[in-house]
What does this fold into?
Amino acid sequence: MKRILVTGAFGLVGSDLVLELQKKYGQDNIIALGRSTIDDSFQGILEQGDVRDKAAMELLVRKYDISEIYHLAGLLSVGGEKQPDLAWDVNVNGLKNILDIAKENKIKVFWPSSIAAFGPTTPKENVPQHTSLEPSTIYGVSKVTGELLCQYYFKRYGVDVRSLRYPGLNGYKAAPGDGTTEYAIHIFYGLLQNNAYECFLKEDARLPMMYMDDAIKGTIALMEAPSEKISVRTSYNFSAISFTPAELVAEIKKIAPDFQVTYKPDSRQQIAESWPQTIDDSKAREDWGWQEEFDINKMTQALYEGIKAKLAK
Ligand code: AKB
It folds into this structure.
């Protein structure tokens, strides 16, 4: 049986992924690692630690005889710009620790890259798998570095590491992180708490997005695909929907016609402008059968219901 360590287990992706992995492989086989954010209601095996502490990570891997790691711990685009040194340390040195431990203990690894690996010289539309990667944020720089590190560890040491370039991921189990695409989650809190929201991006800032259930499904499918199907060892383009704040507001107004939204773009708009609008993820579809289920309408309904229920608790 697999024994899986999830780092960043209480972050936006981890909060959903851990539950799904527990369902699939049993609660006793999933080890959730958090650093500071720990969910008090969590049921399962919980450990606290920092991915920058290689010795502590090695001890955990031995203690639980880990066979797979989903390494999610990391800073996002906005958080990274606030603390660039910390972003490099956690995102790059943390990943290198995990890859070294994977090499020594023959562990399979998932690590998320992001659309932040792209930059102003990347085409804006239908970005191909292989393209210019000149990001303007430290987060993006750490993602490009991480992608190359993953490919190097695969080619040089045979580490079975797999990765996806996540678009903006929208879920409700965890609080939204310190990112640029996260306006698409904050907006639902604005709706449900004040019936109003001030958006930090322009109304026409189109970005690649995905509902969390699709992201979790794709992540697990990638990890379960036979090794010979994986032709990309940097990180796969991974895409579902693409929308602007104005388009999301129009969807929300189908549920709440009186919702008031104003726009006050700040430095996060520049980050959004440096990223592409749509992604060509045909390689993921061809290689291991990626297919999304949620369009903007289904996603809006799911987020509305999920955040409403959460706030009612
Ligand atoms: C962010 O906006 O920083 C993240 C991402 C696209 O990786 N959501």
User: Anything to note?
Assistant: Residues 4-167+211-237 form a domain with the Rossmann fold fold (CATH 3.40.50.720). The chain has eleven helices and twelve strands. The pocket of 2-amino-3-ketobutyric acid is lined by residues 76-77, 114-116, 139, 166, 168, 179-182 (CB under 6 Å).
